[in-house]
Input
Amino acid sequence: MKDRENRQAEPAVIAEKAQSIHARNMEKRLLRVVEHIHSAQPQELSLDHLADIAAMSRFHFHRVFHAVTGETAAQATRRIRLYRAAMQLVQGSCPIDQIAAEAGYATVPAFSRAFRARFDLPPGQFRQRGQLGPAPRPPLIGETKMYDVTLETLPDRRLAGLDHRGDYMAIGETFEKLNVLASSRNLWPKVQGMLGIYYDDPDATPAQDLRSFAALEIAADADVAEPMERASISGGATAVLLFKGPYAGLHDAYKYLYGVWLPQSGREARDAPCYEVYLNSPSDTAPEELLTQICLPLAA
Output
């Protein structure tokens, strides 16, 4: 009897160990990024390069780093580089323009503005004072709200939609245009759902540069003409987080998905962007009743 119970327990034990190994592996990859930030030249600190150091998809690295550490990779780079500059100012005699260049700033005024914002003094006065102080700490991460996440095998999706550039919270206007096009072309009988694809991390990318795609899931025989564009989402293993509430609350759900669930899941994110499936519409649903599936494609 005990042998049978032990055999039945083995899969759960193995899965738990695999998740623990995966979490430690992700931790090591993020530590590798921090070590790189401390030692690399400014030209080696692009966000895409840091994603390569972490061996993560560029679609997901920024969200994972921010959710786990409490700051974006760009904020961590700025904090670490400026503290190193502070050390050079107090402990060495390098010219300020050289220190600015090594910190990744093209001009001394740009460096001075960033330095003063961090240390409340311009570089010259900071050097004259001669007091370094403790290294600034990363922000503390507060308690994270929990969400239910399910593992699903989803089908391929055929899409018709419009590109959106800018603040994600303003994508509603693009969806409105898409609705008008679908109505004027009698496309609704071929529509099977409404989705949004979000390519960038809003915490790491300026709002005006965010890229997204407002989309309708369509039947194979649907006629798609300009200005709409065809697109597709490959099916397969997907983590699906069901969020209930106003769209403004989705940010916390993403933080949980990337900062808690993914590191502990034992799974790897696929090299494909996250997307949202809207199960009802704000046009006839109260904000607190809106249902959104956040879909994170997973590697096989």
Q: What stands out?
A: Confidence is low (pLDDT under 50) at residues 7-15. Strands lie at 149-154, 157-165, 191-198, 211-218, 229-233, 236-244, 274-278, 291-297. Residues 92 and 127 are 9 Å apart (CA to CA). The first strand starts at residue 149 and ends at 154.
